[in-house]
Write a structure and sequence with these properties.
28 helices, Ferritin, 3-stranded antiparallel β-sheet, alpha/beta
C-alpha cells in the first residue's frame, strides 16, 4: 500500500520529538536527516550492482537495527555504518552518533538513538517501492524536514535553507527550461547551503544537468551531499570551503565557468574580504572593471563572483538585500558598471520576512550575459505584496510563484506590478535601481468627498473607478445610476437594499455567469477524461502540471477574472488532498483500500477507532449508494436534538428559586424520581409533579433516540464496510474524480466568481451609505432631538 506524502512527512517529523530538548534544531536536524538518508539508500541500492551509491556489507540500515539497545550504539553506528559510507562514496561528513554532549550519555543516549532508529523501522517506510517514478517523494520529504528545522533554528542558524518557493522562482526565471539544455550543461551554487536551489534548477531543466556547489559550513555541506543523492543526483559535486577566499572550482585560467548559477549568499556578510588580496583579488580578478566592494558588506562580492564565474552566454540569479539596489558610494559605482555592461536582465522585489536568517525584504537579481551588449532595459517586478502568512514567516503562494515567473519570462508589463525600464531612464536616476522609483504599487486611496457629504449623491469618479465592471455590464451602469443635478456627481436610481438584486438579475450579469459556468464545464469535462485515464506508474507532478496549464489557459484574458486566483484554488486543493490521492493511485491503482484506525491511549496501548479509506472517504459512498439510510440517520439526529432542546428549555424555565429543579443537587433520573416520591406526600404539588414527569418522559425518549441512532449508524457502517470491497475501478473513478475532486474544485471556483460580483454590489452599497445623509439632514435631526430633550427637561422642572 502506498504511503501518502503527508503521512510520510508526519512520520518523519516524529523522529524529531526524540531529540528535542537535548539540542537545538540546527543540530538535531543533522541526525534525523542522516537517518533518513541511510534508510533511503539502504532500501533503494543495498546489494544492487552498478548502483550510484556503494553500501558496503554490514553498513545498511538493516545492520543498524542490530545495534538497538547496545550500550555502545553510538560508536557502532559511527564505525560500522557512517565510516564505511563516507569512505566509499562522495560524502565528506555525517554527524557524530557518539557525541555525548548532544545525545546524552549512558542509558539516555542508548534510548534516544534506539528510539530514533525505530522511527524509520516501519513497513510503510519501505522506500524501495514507495516511489512514483519520476517524483522525488523522498527528496520532497527531505525538503519538508529542512524547512521545519529552519523555522525552529532561529535567526542565526536557519541560513542553510532557501525557502522552496523562492528557489522555484529563481529556477524558472533563469530560463533553463527554454534553452534546450544538454547533458553537459553545468549549474553552480557558490553558497549552496543544503542544495535546495541547485535541485530546483535541475528539476526545471529538460535534460540531466551537472550540479556543482560550495558551502562553507561542514555540517551543511554534508546535508547538501545527502540531499543530492536523495534526489538521484549522486554525481553532483559538493565541496566545502569559503567561496570568496578559497573557491574550490578552478582551472588553469582561474575560476571554472558555468552555464547557470544560482545563489542565496549570507546577507551583508561582514568578513567577506578575509583571506582575499585586495584590490587585485589575485589570481581571480573578480573586481576588475567594477570596483572593490566596501569593507563589512559582501553583497556585491558574491554578485561579482557569480558574474565572473558565468560563461559567455551564461545566466544566473542571486538573492540579495534590497539595499544593493540603491546604496551609494562604492556600491553605486559597482552597480553602474554592472548595468552598463548589460548583465542585469531583471530585478524581482520579494515580500519581507520570507527567509529564515532575516526578516528584511530581499530581491532577486537576474543576470544574463547573452546579448548583454544589446540590452536596452531592465525588467522589474514588484512582488512585495503577494504572500500568505505561515506562522511567524511569510510565504509565497502558488499563484505568486506562477504570476512572477509568467510575467518575467514573457516580459509582460502589468500596471503596479511589472515594467521594462529603459536604460536611459535608469541613467537619469544615476543608476539607482530602487523599484518604487519605477513602479508605483501603492493602493489607491479611497477619498471622502466633502461636497457629497454636504449635498448628497455619489461622486462620478467613484462610479467610473468601477470601469472594469462596466466593460462587462455596459447597460447595468445606467440601470443603477442616473445624472445628478450637479456636474461630476451621479444619482443612485435604486434603493440601496435593491442594489444586489438589480445586479444579480440583470441580463448582462446572467450572461457573464453563464459564460463562466461554460468555461469551467469545458475544463471539467476534459479534466475528468484525463484524470480517469491515470493509472499505476503515472507521475503526479505531470498530472498537476497539465491540469493547471489548461486551467490558466481557460481563464486567460477574461474580464474581471484574475486567472492566478483561480489557479490558486486548484493548487491549494492539490497540495492538501489531490496530490496524496494521485500518489496512492500511481502505486495501488483505482482501489478503495480500507484500513483500521489505531490510536495510542494514555496507557500507551493501541485502541481500535474503527476504519476509513484515504482515497474514497465514507461520505462519498454514502451520498452515492446509501442516501436513504443516511436520511434516516439524519432524521433520528434531528429528533434527538429536538428532545435535547426541550429538556434544556424545561431546565431553564424551572430552575429559578421556586422552580422544581432548584432543590436538586444534580438533574438526573435518580434524583428526579426521589423528588417525585417526596412531592406525592405534599399538598399543591401537582404542577411540579407534572413538570418532572414530563421531564422523565423526555429523558426516556432521548435514551430511545440515542439507541436508535447507534443502531442505525452501526447498520450503515456495516453496509459501507461490505460495499467497499465490491467497488469496481470505474466506480472508484466516479467517486474520486467526479464526486470528490471536481465537486470540490467547482465549489471553490464558483465561490470565487460569486465574490467578484459581491465586490461590485458591496462597493456600490458602501458609496450609497456613505453619502445618503447630507450634513443639513443630519443637522436637522440633531436639532429635532435637542428640542425633544429640552421639552422633556422643561416638563421635569429643569430650565434649559
Amino acid at each position: 500500500m502506498a504511503i501518502k506524502k503527508s503521512d510520510l512527512y508526519s512520520s518523519l517529523w516524529e523522529a524529531c520529538n526524540d531529540l528535542r530538548g537535548s539540542m537545538d534544531a540546527s543540530q538535531y536536524k543533522d541526525y534525523v536527516l542522516a537517518l533518513l538518508f541511510i534508510k533511503y539508500i539502504s532500501d533503494k541500492w543495498a546489494g544492487k550492482p552498478f548502483a550510484p551509491i556503494v553500501i558496503p556489507e554490514g553498513s545498511s540500515y538493516k545492520d543498524m537495527l542490530e545495534f538497538r539497545g547496545n550500550s555502545d550504539i553510538g560508536d557502532l553506528i559511527n564505525k560500522r555504518i557512517v565510516g564505511p559510507l563516507i569512505e566509499n562514496n562522495r560524502i565528506t561528513t555525517m554527524p557524530d552518533f557518539n557525541n555525548s554532549d548532544k545525545l546524552g550519555s549512558g542509558k539516555d543516549k542508548v534510548d534516544r538513538l534506539t528510539s530514533l532508529i525505530n522511527v524509520f523501522n516501519k513497513k510503510e517506510l519501505d522506500f524501495s517501492s514507495n516511489r512514483a517514478e519520476g517524483d522525488d517523494i523522498l527528496g520532497d520529504a527531505y525538503e519538508y524536514l529542512m524547512r521545519h528545522f529552519a523555522t525552529e533554528s532561529g535567526k542565526s542558524k536557519g541560513q542553510f535553507y532557501t525557502p522552496a518557493e523562492v528557489s522555484r522562482v529563481m529556477a524558472k526565471v533563469i530560463s533553463i527550461n527554454k534553452d534546450h539544455t544538454r547533458a553537459d550543461t553545468t549549474v553552480y551554487d557558490p553558497t549552496c547551503g543544503s542544495g535546495s536551489l541547485l535541485l530546483k534548477v535541475a528539476a526545471e531543466a529538460d535534460a540531466n544537468v551537472s550540479l556543482y556547489g560550495q558551502e562553507n559550513d561542514l555540517a551543511t555541506s554534508g546535508l547538501a551531499q545527502m540531499n543530492m543523492i536523495l534526489h538521484d543526483y549522486a554525481t553532483a559535486v559538493i565541496k566545502k570551503g569559503n567561496t570568496l577566499s578559497d573557491p574550490q572550482f578552478k582551472n588553469d585560467n582561474g575560476l571554472q565557468l558555468f552555464d547557470y548559477i544560482v545563489a542565496n549568499p549570507p546577507f551583508s556578510y561582514k568578513k567577506w574580504n578575509s583571506g582575499i588580496t585586495l584590490p587585485d583579488d589575485n589570481p581571480y580578478n573578480r573586481f576588475a572593471d567594477y570596483g572593490v566592494p566596501p569593507d563589512k558588506n559582501g553583497d556585491y562580492a558574491f554578485m561579482l563572483h557569480i558574474i565572473h564565474s558565468l560563461k559567455r552566454m551564461g545566466k544566473g540569479a542571486v538573492i540579495l538585500p534590497h539595499g544593493v539596489l540603491f546604496r551609494g558610494n562604492v556600491e553605486a559605482e559597482i552597480r553602474e558598471n554592472v548595468i552598463k555592461k548589460g548583465y542585469v536582465k531583471g530585478i524581482i522585489g520579494l515580500p519581507p520576512n520570507l527567509f529564515y536568517g532575516t526578516g528584511i525584504p530581499a530581491t532577486i537579481i537576474v543576470v544574463d550575459k547573452e546579448n548583454a551588449q544589446n540590452r536596452k532595459g531592465v525588467f522589474m517586478i514588484d512582488a512585495g505584496k503577494g504572500f500568505i502568512k505561515d506562522g511567524n514567516k511569510n510565504r509565497l503562494r502558488e499563484q505568486d510563484i506562477k504570476k512572477i515567473t509568467d510575467v518575467f519570462n514573457d516580459s509582460i508589463e502589468v500596471d503596479g506590478f511589472s515594467r521594462l525600464v529603459p536604460l536611459a531612464e535608469i541613467e537619469q536616476n544615476k543608476y539607482n535601481l530602487n523599484i518604487p522609483r519605477y513602479i508605483d504599487s501603492t493602493d489607491t486611496e479611497d477619498i471622502q468627498d466633502i461636497e457629497a457629504h454636504l449635498r448628497g449623491d455619489i461622486p462620478t469618479v467613484d462610479v467610473d473607478d468601477l470601469d472594469e465592471y462596466w466593460k462587462v455590464y455596459p447597460t447595468l451602469k445606467s440601470s443603477l445610476f442616473g445624472a445628478s443635478e450637479r456636474n461630476k456627481y451621479s444619482m443612485l436610481k435604486v434603493d440601496k437594499d435593491a442594489i444586489k438584486g438589480t445586479i444579480f438579475t440583470h441580463p448582462e450579469f446572467v450572461k457573464f455567469q453563464n459564460e463562466m459556468n461554460s468555461i469551467f464545464s469545458n475544463w471539467k469535462s476534459e479534466s475528468i477524461t484525463k484524470l480517469k485515464a491515470v493509472d499505476i506508474g503515472n507521475q503526479p507532478k505531470k498530472i498537476i502540471a497539465e491540469l493547471s496549464f489548461r486551467l490558466l489557459a481557460s481563464y486567460d484574458n477574461k474580464d474581471l477574472i484574475d486567472k492566478y486566483d483561480i489557479y490558486q484554488y486548484l493548487m491549494t486543493y492539490w497540495n492538501e488532498t489531490m496530490q496524496d490521492d494521485c500518489y496512492i493511485i500511481a502505486f495501488d491503482g483505482w482501489v478503495a483500500d480500507i484500513h483500521r484506525i489505531i490510536e495510542i491511549n494514555k496507557k500507551k496501548k493501541e485502541v481500535d477507532k474503527g476504519w476509513d479509506c484515504d482515497l474514497v472517504p465514507k461520505d462519498l459512498v454514502i451520498n452515492r449508494y446509501f442516501k436513504d439510510e443516511q436520511n434516516t440517520l439524519n432524521a433520528l439526529e434531528e429528533e434527538k436534538e429536538t428532545i435535547e432542546t426541550q429538556l434544556t428549555e424545561m431546565e431553564e424555565e424551572h430552575s429559578g428559586e421556586d422552580g422544581c429543579f432548584s432543590d436538586l443537587d444534580k438533574i438526573n433520573k435518580g434524583n428526579i424520581n426521589a423528588r417525585l416520591k417526596e412531592l406525592k406526600l405534599e399538598e399543591d404539588a401537582d404542577e411540579d409533579i407534572e413538570v418532572l414527569t414530563s421531564y422523565l418522559s423526555l429523558m426516556d425518549n432521548l435514551a430511545k433516540a440515542k439507541k436508535s441512532i447507534k443502531t442505525a449508524a452501526t447498520e450503515l457502517d456495516a453496509l459501507l464496510y461490505a460495499k467497499y470491497p465490491t467497488l469496481t475501478p470505474d466506480e472508484v473513478k466516479t467517486l474520486v474524480v467526479d464526486d470528490k475532486w471536481m465537486a470540490t474544485i467547482e465549489n471553490d471556483i464558483s465561490n470565487e466568481i460569486d465574490q467578484i460580483s459581491q465586490k461590485l454590489s458591496n462597493r456600490i452599497k458602501e458609496l450609497a451609505e456613505r453619502y445618503e445623509n447630507t450634513l443639513p439632514e443630519l443637522d436637522a435631526k440633531v436639532e429635532a432631538l435637542e428640542e425633544k430633550v429640552n421639552d422633556h427637561l422643561n416638563k421635569m422642572g429643569f430650565e434649559w
